[in-house]
Specification:
This protein has helices at 13-16, 85-92; strands at residues 4-6, 28-34, 37-46, 53-58, 61-67, 72-81, 95-102, 105-112, 119-127, 132-137, 142-147, 150-155, 160-165, 169-173, 178-183, 187-191, 196-201, 205-209, 214-219, 223-227, 232-237, 241-245, 250-252, 259-263, 268-270, 276-280, 285-287, 294-298, 303-306, 316-320, 325-330, 335-341, 350-352, 358-359, 369-375, 381-386, 391-396. The protein is mainly beta. The chain has a domain at 1-138.
Length: 398
């Protein structure tokens, strides 16, 4: 329970050094005290165009919500730990609060003059139909919800979160995590080292993090995902997917277009797509339920490719310098196979379940080992090349 709640100005407004240009109403205050914590709340309104641009710059945590209203409302909470009210006043000191309107754009700024405040939390309600909302924090977290127009949020080091945004959205933080609920338009996310998690994006989406993981549930458009140190996991993308990870796993469950994936030190798994182009430096590549062109290459890892019956296959290449290649081929698929094993000595083999694919008998000192043949009258060429393992051509029955 609060020991004391004062519905009065805890400090004179002049002591707050509050400046409001074109403000709709002067700030009001409320002071609360619980145990050794003092909280001062400053709130008020400022003028903004209902369908204009609202821009905010703060030094603290900020939450922006779109509401059915004509003006903008703000609430600022300062919280400090202190033994006395006098000491709390000394720590809180003043902050610079400015708001102004220029044409159809409004500006709101909250910057404290002291670092003594434990926390500075700002909440702003803006017209839901605002053309664009921009919220930037120097160090704190930034959240934006229920906006019909564009939303741009940025932070120097804090976490970011957006949800229920109908316009294009842009999220940028130099070190925090990014969480996206639903954006019904294009989406851009960048983090200097945090995790990026997206539930739903309605159009083309770009994600980039210097060291975190990327998780995507659904994107209704092309997806571009890049991380320098984490995994990439995608459940559904309606179009093409381009994914790059320096060291992590890339897992694409379903894509409506070509999947292009590259990792230097992890594995790649594609469970569905309209073609796949994958490169792994030292990991395994697995591709299933993919039609179109398939081009898989690994420097040091195994390759497993499952071809799809009833879907057109285009010219495809599977290649590894140090690993086994296993291809699962439907019995009724029309394809021409050209397999080549360049592994030195008798270790490298070509094992085929198909009598149509003729393997030349191994002769010591004769390289490479080759197997060729056409299935169901022949079709697009599937080239399989291994230089440090075995090749397995297996029949897949449905």
């Amino acid at each position: 329970m609060l020991n004391r709640i004062q519905q009065r100005c805890a400090f004179p407004l002049l002591a707050l050094l509050v400046v409001c240009a074109f403000a709709q109403s002067p700030p009001r205050q409320m002071m609360a005290h619980e145990g050794g914590t003092f909280t001062r709340t400053t709130f008020g309104n400022f003028t903004c165009a209902p369908q204009g641009r609202v821009s905010m710059a703060v030094a603290g945590d900020i939450t922006v919500r779109g509401q059915v209203r004509e003006d903008c409302y703000y609430r600022i909470r300062q919280r400090v730990s202190a033994q006395t009210e006098k000491r709390a006043a000394e720590l809180m000191q003043a902050f610079n609060l400015r708001s102004q309107v220029q044409n159809d754009s409004s500006y709101f700024k909250v910057i404290p003059y002291t670092a003594g405040t434990d926390t500075l939390e700002i909440e702003v309600a803006v017209p839901k139909g605002s053309r664009e909302v921009v919220a930037i924090s120097q160090i704190g977290s930034v959240k934006a919800f229920d906006i019909d127009g564009a939303a741009t949020i940025e932070s120097g080091a804090g976490n970011l979160e957006v949800d229920r945004i109908n316009g294009p959205a842009s999220c940028r933080t130099d070190g925090g995590n990014i969480k996206v609920g639903r954006v019904n338009n294009t989406l851009r996310c960048y983090s200097g080292g945090g995790q990026i998690r997206i539930a739903s994006a309605g159009a083309e989406t770009w994600t980039d993090t210097a060291g975190g993981e990327i998780f995507v549930t659904e994107v209704q458009g092309p997806l571009h995902a890049s991380t320098s140190g984490g995994n990439i996991e995608v459940e559904r993308a309606a179009s093409i997917v381009r994914a790059f990870s320096m060291l992590g796993l890339i897992d694409i469950q379903q894509a409506g277009g070509l999947v292009t994936a590259e990792t230097r030190g992890g594995s790649i798994q594609v469970s569905g797509g309209r073609g796949a182009r994958c490169e792994a430096g030292s990991g395994t590549i697995r591709v299933r339920n993919s039609d179109g062109p398939i081009r898989l290459n690994t420097m040091a890892g195994n390759i497993l490719a499952e071809l799809v019956a009833g879907r057109p296959l285009q010219e495809s290449i599977l290649s590894t310098l140090a690993g086994d290649i296993t291809v699962l081929i439907p019995s009724n698929l029309a394809v021409t196979v050209q397999a080549r094993n360049e592994t030195q000595g008798a270790r490298g083999r070509i094992v085929s379940d198909f009598r149509e694919i003729q393997t030349k008998p191994f002769q010591p000192g004769v390289e490479p080992k080759v197997a060729t043949g056409s299935l169901n009258g022949g079709g697009p060429v599937l080239r399989v090349t291994a230089a440090g393992g075995n090749i397995y051509l297996k029949r897949l029955r449905y």
